[in-house]
Design a protein that fits this description.
The complex is a heterotetramer of chains A (296), B (595), C (594) and D (339). By secondary structure, chain B is α/β, with parallel strands linked by helices. Chain B is built from 22 helices and 23 strands. Helices cover 31% and strands 20% of the residues of chain B. Chain B has a 5-stranded parallel beta sheet, with helices on both faces. In chain B, strands 7-15-8-9-10 form a 5-stranded parallel beta sheet. In chain B, strand 12 and strand 13 form a beta hairpin. The longest helix of chain B is centred in the C-terminal third of the chain and has 20 residues. In chain C, helix 17 links the parallel strand 20 and strand 21. Chain C folds into 4 domains: 187 residues, Pyruvate-ferredoxin Oxidoreductase, domain 3, CATH 3.40.920.10; 185 residues, Thiamin diphosphate (ThDP)-binding fold, Pyr/PP domains (Rossmann fold, 3-Layer(aba) Sandwich), CATH 3.40.50.970; 75 residues, no CATH class; 105 residues, 3-Layer(aba) Sandwich (Rossmann fold). Chain C starts with 10 loop residues before the first strand and ends in a 5-residue tail after the last helix. Chain D is α/β, with parallel strands linked by helices and 339 residues long. Chain D has 2 domains: 186 residues, FAD/NAD(P)-binding domain (3-Layer(bba) Sandwich); 128 residues, FAD/NAD(P)-binding domain. Chain D contains 7 helices and 23 strands. In chain D, strands 3-2-1-7-19 form a 5-stranded parallel beta sheet. In chain D, strands 9-16-10-11-12 form a 5-stranded parallel beta sheet, covered by helices on one side. The chains are: A alpha/beta (296), B alpha/beta (595), C alpha/beta (594), D alpha/beta (339).
Chain lengths: 296, 595, 594, 339
């Protein structure tokens, strides 16, 4: 053993402050958005990464649990309200957005978060998305896009790539997958950001901005299903080709956003944001004002 | 580690420092205690996972050298070690099976190496100091070896005509062939250590003379004086002291034993005497012990083999008297009950009144322990030497080590402690500490251990058939693990010198590692109470999601299977190689560092 | 039941319980297939959770007998515990003296109240097998604990390992030869460990005997039977949306249909699914969709359209516990009313309910004929228990049309005066139908009330006339449909048992038991459950002192139809145990001692 | 659950007697019996008749499952305790379960002893202690003609008689290791030998087995004197050793058996032992003493239970010359010469 200099050593090297790091997590407030019961998603599920980032974003926004409502549909992601501390509404398959709209219209003071999977949001519930966007209801909709139906054990979803073999497409999925980003931009969501489950640190500020946005904010997040998808979105493959939205990107420029969305690289961050579009509540207020003033 | 480049690319925080580091922090040293229990249990702190890994990579030379770095007698200790390491081995935890055959693997390397001599060891330049050592037993040899490495000139004064001390004169050859001793002593004398035989200190030369001649003198004269049974009748013909009995046999004598031999005592010597008596033709041999078998310090294998050879063990007996006229006719015994624990941590045994009876015997061997020779009479010194526990004495330059200092102990304890004494002597002579224990922390890769290796059964030591054993004292009973046995046994080691860690900052709490973990060593942690020493035992676990501050690996339970590292989706699990090693601190490099 | 039978008879019920992911269902599958191959009769039902992991248990329930059996048996003779906490909740299903096989090498120590071993009562037999360790030895993981358990079962019960190993080899061999070899090793380790280490103290013994391999016998689930019917019927289009427990039908058809010129469309929801199917029916090709209660509820609007438009379409409903999402993994017979009545308006359509796996095939097959013959949607009511349970079936022995042949009345060319009357009022109510592509017979199908030509007509006279026409088709069907199955006592009976669908198996076993106890009992087991065969029912009721209607729902949905038909009250054996009907409950209701 | 939990390890007569007495004295406490045998409590002395085919397995059972159910006693069969933690009061079961207790009663009995000197070929010995062994004997009996019995504890003599009664050829080798744990005088030994010889057994004395090898379907046994005995089966009857290996890590005082005081307390709070596994000093014979036999075990089980419930009865009685066999009295003490 060659010797090295014997500098005075203050701290142990093996246990590098694990205890204080745990305390830091507790102090951060991240745990305040968790239920007591453990999530029942499969161990290794990407949803944990999303959930972790979401907690960080809610912490950053300082949103009180009591003022927060999470609405979901059916599917693995639909379980989220059960693992969350706050008000949740676990609705029926594909119909989360209408319920969320009802909540938000009735109680504008609440923060309403909608979560759901790709099947729920783009398949059975796909018809609701454009209309929720059109009304610009002030809710944040996070789409957990894992490209598969996990809860029913691995059938094709609207974002399953063409050619992928699934339980319902044993010879390969014949359909072109939907791209929720292009879709959202095409529907002209007033806010659209993207991300993936592998980097909670990058995802959290994106969620925070979505929550801050006035109007319908749509955030499709790519996430792996470790149980029923071994080929498309795996933890390793999910990371491929991502880079941050370029610093010079103008998020108010829809064409630029669409160009990014159609680029073969994938960008995480805010692609499009139209902060001043009137929300449904704004429009209602307008209507109310017109009605009050009998203006035409 | 293999994952590092990609992990860095993705920005995931890794808990592994890419750079190697060393630590002397007490908390890091303490980590070894709960995490590499075998190494900590070894009095010489032999790097056991290190050499077993070398074994399993079929690099027996490396394995042997790692062994030699801590204990200079791997061939000897690979046979007759008392194996405190195996008692501590994690593989022997109740839910994990049986300990790794650490000792047997040591022998595999010692017997199977290709090197004839160890390659050049690190040595300090000649210091000009001269050290005299009294006795060429394990402690004397260990002292001599260390002091030679420190650059001192060493001369050993040995009263017998051959080196080894108790190894040669106490332990029977059927357990330890003499050629093994000769070879390993040869590596020490090759460093320039001189041994003068046939010199009895106190008679042929006094300690005062030696202190004149040398800058320091170490007394490692061992425990050559047998405790004697303090009961009537020990002067009858047919009564032997166990140590004398063994020394006679080991110097070529064949003491006569009768048909019924009774051995009194329960240590290795008692068992050696009993088994030797069988080889000398005794028909009925029994060992009378004060307590019960469970409390004996000898290994289970020793007990089983003695019984297989026909030795009977009689428990809970106190000897009261050796009966007979001129010759021994029997031993009068009383039955004991177990009492409390004495100040040395041993169970008391209390004779039961009215339980006396006599066991017929024509030979009685009393092997109840040894003590240092009352020697040093005739030391020629003005003051009576008084030794402290650390080996120093009231007389400048006079030291002691080994059994002479501590009382009868095991070979590995002697070696381990003698090395420490040698370091202290060197510090005194050179004026500074030139050898220390450090923890080295290195980046590591996952091992390629397979999970099914955890279920390999402990490999049994091939033994000579009973019929061939009793043919003679020289026939070695244990044959050594063969190739496949050695390979299988080496695979069993968990390699506890690996440390798997989760970087909380990179964790998404997905619990995949917990799900896949074969032992409940990963869990949801609420907090870690600092406590004393390493964090190990003070993790506060939780089952609540809203209380889970982090997912933590309890290294003191981890069996190093590596499954968590391979499964972690955010690659926030890393592995480091943590070794407790000793290093010499040389002047040159210190000078370099100062620049 | 069954364990009381003479000793030489094999009638063993095994439950393999695990957390989802433990492979309990796969193990049950291997056991079924092997037993059937060896010549035993089997009934199997898999009970699985909606969630993949985390919560919920999954249980493979296998009954193996050397005689034909009608129910899965109520009490199990053996529990294979692949997950301790879940398995503890299974003890209520065990027969006296049952064998419990548990994992003696779980990864961690269980606390006392979480370990199956502690719940084994005196009189039961507990065998601990180190499943995890043997699995790790064979496959280096815990994946094959289920296979080890199968091996152990084979050793304990002396079940000839040949057929089991063939099944394992075939299944894993599809993935890789190495995987097959590893799993075979897992099986062998389990078997030899059991043979070498366990002291057999139970009485179940197959004596390594093979009763006789039956040619052509396959292990088939109700879903597979129904899917086979679709294939044999020459279905052109299957449109569906995944839903438990019917998804399997879609998955099979997705695999099998393309090669036979058919198409499977996975639609975005059930609304779209039945839309596709109705379109296909209108176009003159056979179409089908399969769903469960929530999907059927979504489809009711389209069912109304198909009734109104007289479009043939087959809807298979695998019933599960409701209402709403309900109990997605539990069986129930509570969709009868929505099947018969769901939707807007007076909306007649036939509802068929098979009694066993073979009938899932034959009756679904017949449903296509009836749909076309009567130009109507036909609802086939399976239930989760029927969908998922497997039985040994030899299709070469099965009469594919036990309910007669039904011919479609097609209009091939224009006859008579005026324009083509697509909805001509006839004596039978059936109007010759033309499909697109047929020359000259142009018309429109609409959901609006329409006249014989298919043109909107809201007059009260027309509405009454056309409603009568649509109901007339049901009367014709009743006239032509074979007599319902009458079982047991043919003369005067102390008790008459009426049941339908999967309840018939339990009712049959109960009836047989009652007769052995000297109770004069008769059975009425219809397959056409709506419309009700009133005449046959009336004459049955007249010769029975009591009539009990047994079904697995809360309100007695069929009993209500029976009472309506008889104009008298009947006894109801109902309840929502979220489990198949229990023969013992029927016996008890009939006043027999079980 | 705050009530007491009496955990009894064992399911022999001592264990069952203790369970019965405990239940009579404590209606509430939980009582659990754990036995590594798969069979319910059975009459051990009827095994000989079972081996001979005179009675069936059903005639061995002492109690029906209902007996336990009615008394709310949990009986765990075929389950093995691998370790106990006396501090935390947890028993670890081999199938990885932790069972906590408030009172532990060890009635773990004995297992057949094979002297270590015979370890090289122990796999060729056939033993007879429990029903498991009896089943094996019974299954093999029809094909056995010539049987060598070595050792020579009390059971061996009875088994030899049974075999002779079935017309089998019996060789009986009274080993130097014989009669362990019993020690009998030369006189008794001679008497037993004479008795067996009178029934047609061939007695071999003054010799010992040194090796066994398979030969054909049977065995060839080599002896110290150089004999080569060919036989179909070698029955080993070297007595029993207490089955206490699982307690070695517990810190409990164990010699041959669990060392207990006269009240059967095992030196730790709330830990007791009774039956064949308990070793107690008996002043009347100046020796440690392990009682064997059904009645003794039953009595010890009863005493232990009573003492657990608060009594202070001594288990040590003057030796009653526990067994009488064909007019020969055998002292059932360990390591005790009668002279």
């Amino acid at each position: 053993m060659s010797s090295r200099s014997r500098e005075p050593q203050d701290a142990p090297l093996l246990n590098r402050g694990v205890a204080s790091r745990l305390d830091r997590v507790v102090d951060s407030g991240l745990l305040d958005y968790r239920s007591e019961a453990l999530p029942t998603w499969c161990p290794g599920c990407g949803y944990y990464g999303i959930t972790h980032a979401l907690a960080a974003a809610l912490t950053e926004r300082g949103i009180e649990n009591r003022n927060l409502v999470v609405v979901s549909g059916i599917g693995c992601a639909g379980r989220y309200p059960f693992f969350f501390k706050g008000y949740g509404f676990h609705g029926v398959h594909g119909r989360a957005l209408p319920i969320a709209g009802g909540v938000k219209i009735a109680r504008p003071d609440l923060t309403v978060l909608v979560v759901g999977g790709d099947g729920d949001g783009l398949g059975i519930g796909g018809g609701h998305l454009p209309h929720a966007i059109r009304r610009n209801i002030d809710v944040t909709y996070i789409l957990f896009d894992n490209g598969i139906y996990g809860l029913t054990k691995g059938q094709s979803s609207p974002t399953t790539p063409q050619g992928q073999r699934t339980g319902t497409h044993p010879y390969g999925n014949p359909d072109t997958p939907l791209d929720p980003v292009v879709l959202g931009l095409g529907y002209r969501a007033s806010f659209l950001a993207t991300g993936y489950a592998g980097e909670p640190d990058e995802l959290a500020p994106i969620f925070a901005r979505a929550l801050a946005h006035r109007g319908f904010s749509f955030v499709p997040v790519v996430t792996p299903c470790v149980t029923f998808d071994a080929v498309n979105i795996t933890w390793d493959r999910m990371r491929e080709g991502w880079q941050p939205v370029p610093a010079d990107h103008d998020p108010t420029d829809l064409t630029a956003a669409l160009n990014l969305a159609l680029d073969e690289n994938r960008y995480y961050g805010v692609l499009y944001c139209e902060p001043d579009r009137p929300t449904f509540a704004d429009a209602e207020a307008d209507t109310a004002a017109r009605a009050a003033g009998n203006a035409p | 580690m293999s994952d590092q480049s990609t992990a860095e690319g993705s920005g995931a925080g890794l808990c592994c420092d890419p750079e190697p580091a060393v630590s002397t922090h007490p908390q890091d040293i303490d980590y070894i205690r709960s995490n590499i229990p075998c190494q900590w249990a070894c009095p010489a702190h032999t790097n056991i996972p290190g050499y077993i890994l070398a074994n399993s990579r079929d690099d027996l030379d490396a394995s042997w050298l790692i062994n030699r770095a801590s204990n200079l007698l791997p061939g000897v200790l690979g046979r007759i070690c008392s194996r405190p390491c195996e008692e501590a081995c994690r593989h022997g935890d109740p839910d994990l099976g049986t300990p790794v055959g650490i000792c047997h693997l040591k022998r595999v390397a010692a017997d199977g190496r290709s090197l004839d001599v160890p390659p050049g060891e690190f040595r300090f330049p000649d210091s000009g100091f001269e050290v005299g050592i009294v006795g060429a037993g394990p402690a004397g040899l260990a002292c001599a070896h260390s002091l030679a490495l420190f650059g001192h000139r060493v001369k050993i004064y040995e009263m017998e005509s051959a080196p080894g001390g108790m190894l040669r004169f106490g332990i029977p050859a059927f357990r330890l062939p003499r050629s093994v001793i000769d070879e390993e002593v040869g590596f020490i004398t090759a460093l320039g250590v001189e041994i003068e035989y046939g010199v009895r200190v106190g008679a042929d030369v006094t300690l005062a003379d030696l202190l004149e001649r040398h800058d320091a003198v170490v007394v490692t004269a061992g425990c050559y004086s047998a405790y004697e049974l303090d009961i009537p009748g020990t002067d009858r013909e047919g009564v032997h002291s166990g140590l004398d009995f063994m020394v006679r046999i080991n110097t070529g004598d064949r003491p006569a034993v009768g048909r019924r031999t009774v051995v009194i005592g329960g240590g290795f010597t008692a068992f050696d005497c009993a088994r030797s008596a069988l080889r000398l033709g005794a028909e009925e041999v029994s060992i009378c012990i004060l307590g019960v078998e469970e409390l004996l310090s000898v290994t289970d294998e020793e007990i089983i083999e003695a019984k297989r050879e026909g030795v009977a063990i009689r428990s809970l007996l106190t000897s009261l008297e050796i009966t007979g006229s001129d010759r021994v006719e029997g031993v009068r015994l009383a039955r004991n009950r177990l009492g409390g624990v004495d100040e040395r941590g041993r169970r008391r045994t209390i004779p039961i009144e009215g339980s006396e009876f006599t066991l017929t015997a024509d030979t009685v061997i009393a092997a109840i322990g040894q003590k240092p020779e009352p020697a040093l009479a005739g030391s020629g010194l003005a003051d009576e030497p008084v030794f402290a526990a650390d080996g120093s004495s009231n007389i400048e330059g006079l030291w002691a080590a080994g059994d002479f200092l501590s009382g009868s102990s095991t070979v590995i304890e002697s070696v381990g402690r003698a090395k420490a004494v040698a370091t202290r002597i060197d510090t005194r002579l050179s004026g500074r500490t030139r050898r220390e224990e450090i923890v080295t922390i290195d980046p590591a890769t996952d091992t390629d251990r397979r999970r099914d290796w955890d279920f390999i059964d402990r490999q049994e030591m091939p033994l000579l058939p009973l019929t061939e054993r009793l043919a003679g004292q020289e026939v070695e009973v244990e044959q050594g693990l063969d190739g496949s046995g050695a390979e299988a046994e080496a695979r069993r080691c968990y390699l506890c010198n690996l440390k798997y860690e989760i970087d909380i900052d990179g964790c998404i709490y997905c619990r995949w590692c917990i799900d896949q973990c074969p032992r409940e060593c990963i869990g949801l942690a609420r907090t870690i109470e600092p406590g004393e020493g390493y964090l190990g035992e003070t993790i506060e676990w939780t089952e609540h999601w809203d209380k889970t501050a982090g997912i933590v690996i309890d290294s003191s339970r981890c069996i190093r299977c590596g499954i968590c590292l391979r499964i972690c989706p955010t690659r926030c699990i890393g592995v480091r190689l943590v070794n407790l090693v000793e290093r010499f601190i040389s002047d040159d490099e210190e000078a370099d560092d100062d620049r | 039941m069954g364990r009381d039978e003479p000793a030489e008879g094999i009638d063993v019920t095994i439950r393999i319980c695990g957390a989802a992911g433990d492979g309990s269902l796969a193990a049950g599958g291997f056991m079924n297939a092997a037993a059937a191959r060896m010549g035993y009769h089997i009934i199997n039902i898999d009970l699985y959770p909606a969630e993949i992991r985390g919560f919920g248990k999954s249980v493979a329930h296998v009954r193996i007998s050397d005689r034909p059996v009608h129910t899965p048996g109520t009490k199990a003779d053996c529990l294979v515990a692949l997950n301790d906490p879940h398995s503890i909740t299974e003890f209520g299903t065990l027969a006296e003296g049952a064998v419990v096989l548990y994992d003696s090498r779980p990864p961690v120590y269980w606390d006392e109240d979480r370990a199956v071993a502690g719940f084994i009562e005196p009189g039961m037999v507990g065998y601990g097998v180190p499943l995890g360790e043997l699995s790790a030895r064979a496959t280096r993981s815990t994946r094959s604990r289920n296979i080890v358990a199968l091996g152990a079962l084979s050793g304990i019960f002396r079940i000839d390992p040949g057929a089991l190993k063939e099944g394992i080899e075939a299944r894993f061999g599809r993935k890789s030869a190495e995987l097959a070899a590893q799993n075979l090793q897992a099986f062998d380790l389990g078997r030899s460990w059991a043979l070498e280490n366990l002291e057999k103290t139970d009485a179940i013994d197959f004596h390594d005997r093979i009763p006789g391999q039956r040619e052509g016998v396959r292990v088939v689930s109700g879903n597979e039977g129904a899917a086979r019917a679709c294939l044999e019927a020459g279905v052109r289009l299957y449109a569906g949306y995944p839903i438990t427990p019917a998804t399997k039908i879609m998955e099979i058809l997705a695999k099998e249909l393309p090669a036979r010129g058919g198409v499977v469309v996975q639609t975005e929801d059930e609304i779209s699914a039945i839309g596709h199917a109705v379109g296909s029916g209108f176009a003159g090709t056979r179409a089908v969709t399969a769903t469960s209660g929530p999907g059927l509820a979504l489809m009711t609007e389209f069912i109304g359209l198909a009734v109104m438009g007289e479009v043939p379409v087959v809807i298979i409903d695998g019933q599960r516990g409701g209402p709403s999402t309900g109990l997605p993994t539990k069986t129930e017979q509570s969709d009868l009313h929505i099947a018969a009545f769901g939707g807007a308006g007076d909306c007649p359509r036939p509802v068929l309910a098979p009694a066993d796996v073979t009938e899932c095939f034959t009756l679904t097959r017949t449903a296509f004929e009836v749909a076309e013959a009567f130009q109507t949607p036909v609802i086939v009511l399976l239930d989760l228990f029927l969908c998922n349970r497997t039985e040994d079936v030899n299709f070469s022995d099965v009469d594919p049309a036990p309910w007669g042949a039904w011919a479609e009345v097609r209009a091939e060319r224009h006859e008579g005066e005026g324009s083509y009357r697509r909805f001509a009022v006839t004596e039978t109510g059936i109007s010759p139908r033309a499909v697109p592509g047929t020359p000259d017979l142009y018309h429109a199908v609409t959901g609006l009330e329409h006249n014989e030509r298919g043109l909107p007509d809201y007059t009260p006279e027309n509405h009454l006339r056309m409603t009568r026409k649509r109901y007339r088709k049901m009367e014709t069907l009743l006239e032509r449909w074979p007599e319902p199955e009458l079982a047991g006592e043919s003369g005067r009976a102390e008790v008459g048992i009426v049941s339908w669908g999967s309840g018939i198996g339990a009712a049959r076993e109960a009836l047989a038991f009652l007769q052995t106890r000297g109770v004069r009992a008769a059975g009425f087991f219809p397959r056409l459950v709506w419309p009700v065969c009133e005449e046959a029912l009336r004459s049955f009721a007249e010769r029975c002192e009591r009539v009990i209607v047994a079904e697995s729902n809360y309100t007695g949905q069929y009993a209500g139809l029976v009472e309506q038909a008889l104009g008298a009250r009947v006894e109801r054996l109902t309840g929502v145990p979220a489990a198949p009907l229990d023969p013992a409950a029927i016996v008890a209701a009939a006043g027999g001692e079980a | 659950m705050t009530a007491d939990h009496y955990l009894i390890i064992g399911n022999g007569v001592a264990a069952n007697q203790a369970a019965e007495v405990l239940r009579e004295g404590d209606a509430e406490g939980r009582i659990t019996l754990v036995s590594n045998e798969f069979f319910p409590f059975y009459y051990r002395h009827r095994l000989r008749s079972f081996v001979a085919g005179e009675i069936g397995e059903d005639e061995l059972a002492v109690r029906s499952p209902d007996w336990y159910r009615e008394r709310n006693i949990r009986l765990r069969l075929g389950q093995t305790v691998t370790a106990v933690d006396l501090e935390k009061k947890i028993a670890y079961l081999k199938h990885m379960e932790k069972v906590t207790w408030t009172t532990l009663l060890l009635c773990c009995g004995g297992r057949p002893r094979i002297p270590e000197i015979h370890y090289g070929y122990r796999q060729h010995f056939t033993v007879l202690k429990g029903l498991r062994h009896a089943r094996a004997w019974r299954a093999r009996l029809p094909e056995l003609n010539r049987i060598l019995i070595v050792g020579g504890d009390l059971i061996s003599v009875r088994v030899a008689e049974t075999l002779l009664g079935l017309g089998k050829e019996v060789l009986f080798m009274i080993d130097d290791e014989a009669f362990w744990p019993l020690e009998v005088t030369e006189g008794i030994r001679a008497e037993l030998a004479e008795n067996l010889a009178g029934r047609g057994a061939e007695i071999i004395s003054g010799d010992a087995v040194t090796g066994i090898a398979e030969e054909g379907a049977g065995y060839r046994v080599s002896t110290r004197r150089g004999a080569g005995i060919v036989c179909d089966l070698v029955g080993a009857f070297y007595g029993l050793v207490p089955a206490v290996d699982f307690l070695f890590t517990s810190g409990l005082d164990i010699d041959r058996g669990i060392l207990v005081d006269e009240y059967l307390r095992a030196g730790r709070p709330d830990v007791w032992a009774a039956g064949d596994c308990a070793q107690v000093y008996n002043p009347a014979i100046s020796n440690y003493w392990v009682s064997i036999g059904w009645e003794n075990a039953r009595r010890l089980g009863e005493v232990a239970a009573r003492n657990i419930l608060g009594a202070a009865e001594t288990a040590v009685e003057p030796p009653v010359n526990a067994l009488t066999y064909e007019g020969v009295t055998v002292q059932t003490a360990w390591w005790k010469k009668l002279d």
